[in-house]
C-alpha cells in the first residue's frame, strides 16, 4: 500500500476548499476527537494566531489522508536552552491529540516521525503535550517507538475534570454533587430570580451568533481576564479567531453555546466545541459584579443539563486546570493528560544534535527528580 508524507505547510497557509475537504473527511473518521484540530478551529487559528515556525504535517495512505499534525519549532524546552519541535498548542488550544484516521493510527505515526526525521528544520526532539494517556495517539506512539527502538519518555501527567456518564442530568446532579452544595445553589438561583427575569438559552439561530460573540467578548473583558489582559477581546487576533472559530463550527454543526440572561442581559456564557461523540468546554465568562449568586456555577449546572439531555454528546472534556475548585466539585470523572518527549533520528550532524538534545533533556530531568527526592 502506498503511504506518503507531504512537505509541511507554512504558517501563513490557509486550507483551500480541496484541502479543507480532506481535513474535514479525516476529522469525521478520526480515531480520537479533538475539536481544536478539526478544520474549522484549526483554519481559524492558522489565519489569526499562527506565528513563524508553524508547520502542518500531512500523511497519506492509498491517496487518503490518514494523519494531520500541526507543529511549531521551539527555541527552548522549558528552562533548557535546547531547541525542539512540539505539537502546536496556542493560547486557546487545550487538547493536543493530532488527527489520525481510525484503524491507521500506527501508520500515521510512522509517517509523522519519518517526516520529522528527514526535516532539516526539526531540531532536538519531539515534545508532545495535551494528550489523553488512554487515547488512540498515546497507544500508537508507544507501539511505534517500541517497534522502531526509538527513545521516548513520559515527562508529565495530571488529571482534569471530565463529564462522562449514562445518568440523566437530574440523576447525576443528585448522586455526584453533595446535598449541602445542591441546597446552597438552589438558594442562589431563587435569590437571583428575585432580581428579575432569569432565562437560560442555547444558541439555535445562526443569525444571532455575531451578537452572542459580542456579548461573550464584552462579558469576559469586564472581568479579571480583562484586567490581566488575557481576555479574548484584549487582542484583535484572539477576538478574530474566536469569531471565526465560532462561525465555522456553527456551520459544521460543532458549536454548543449557552447563556444565562437577567432581564435580557447576559450574566453568564459558556462556549463548547463538539467533535465526534464528544465535546470540549472552551471558555466561560460571567458577570463578576453578581458573584454573590455564583453565575459561573449556575451556567455550569445549565451546561450539565444541556449535555446530559443531548444524546449526540457522549462526553465533555472540561479543558480545565488540574484541581479546579469549581468544576471538580460538579463533575466526578477525570481525564489523564500527559506530555511525551520522543527522540528524532536523522543522518550526520542532525542525528548527533538530536541524540545529544534528547539525552541532555532526559539527564537534566532525572537529576532534578533526584535532587527533589523523586527517584
TrEMBL record:
Its EC number is 2.3.1.-. The keyword Lyase does not apply. Residues 179-300 form the BioF2-like acetyltransferase domain. Keywords: Acyltransferase, Transferase. GO terms for molecular function: acyltransferase activity. InterPro entries: Acyl_CoA_acyltransferase, BioF2-like_GNAT_dom. The keyword Transferase applies. This is GNAT family N-acetyltransferase.
